[in-house]
Amino acid sequence: MSKLLIVEDDETIALGCEYSFKKEGFEVMVAKNCAQAKELLSRNSYDCLILDLGLPDGNGFEVCEYAKSVGSPAVIFLTARDDENDIVFGLDMGGDDYITKPFGLKELMSRVKAVLRRKNQNPDQEKIISLGDLKIYSLKGKVYKKNQEVFLSAMEYRLLMTLATRKNEILKREELLDSIWDIGGDFINDNTLTVYIKRLREKIEDDPQNPKLIETIRGIGYRGISRE
């Protein structure tokens, strides 16, 4: 049974989420503010947090930071506005996904199950995947370029893994979105993919303005190119 912590000060949303997830067999706890969330996190371990960004005594970012310091739960942010800066900041600090209010409970359920599936996919042996001069250690979740570690957000890492495991294939934007989010691409803003491709290139390319590892296929999508 997966343990879920919902951090949400809107009682209607919190009760609806709690009821739905308990029906699906989750063990659920609810916190209404940062202080309650940190108290629960200090005494219990959770598989996943559903974390509102706007809380009465702080914000979801500080709860996420605290959660990652005491454990390794998956984190899904709830945001009242589709603010790219908030989204990128949350994902960079270890968040796994986000969903914009208002949202459907079925959509949220799909997101939670998706991040838990990814979290639980732990291969028994380390697999090293190469893309050009990059080495990706799948078990450790680490990426090295010319023996120097490259620090990626969770989303950037998943995007890179998708391109590297299907290197030299042309992947449509819809395929990449589905692979990253593990649910239908209709639920997210397509511009998010463009943002992450740009950020990923800045970290792994020798010259991001003249990319050699991630090629843009205009009107279709992208291709991860192996230079081995």
UniProtKB/TrEMBL annotation:
Residue ranges of DNA binding: 126-226
Residue span, OmpR/PhoB-type domain: 126-226
Name of this chain's protein: DNA-binding response OmpR family regulator
Lineage: Bacteria, Bacillati, Bacillota, Erysipelotrichia, Erysipelotrichales
InterPro entries xrefs: CheY-like_superfamily, OmpR/PhoB-type_DNA-bd, Sig_transdc_resp-reg_C-effctor, Sig_transdc_resp-reg_receiver, WalR-like, WH-like_DNA-bd_sf
Ranges where the Response regulatory domain occurs: 3-116
GO terms under cellular component: cytosol; protein-DNA complex
Annotated source species: Dielma fastidiosa
Keyword terms: DNA-binding, Phosphoprotein, Transcription, Transcription regulation
GO MF annotation, one: transcription cis-regulatory region binding
Gene Ontology BP terms: regulation of DNA-templated transcription
Pfam families attached to this UniProt entry: Response_reg, Trans_reg_C
Phosphoprotein as UniProt keyword: yes
Domain of life: Bacteria
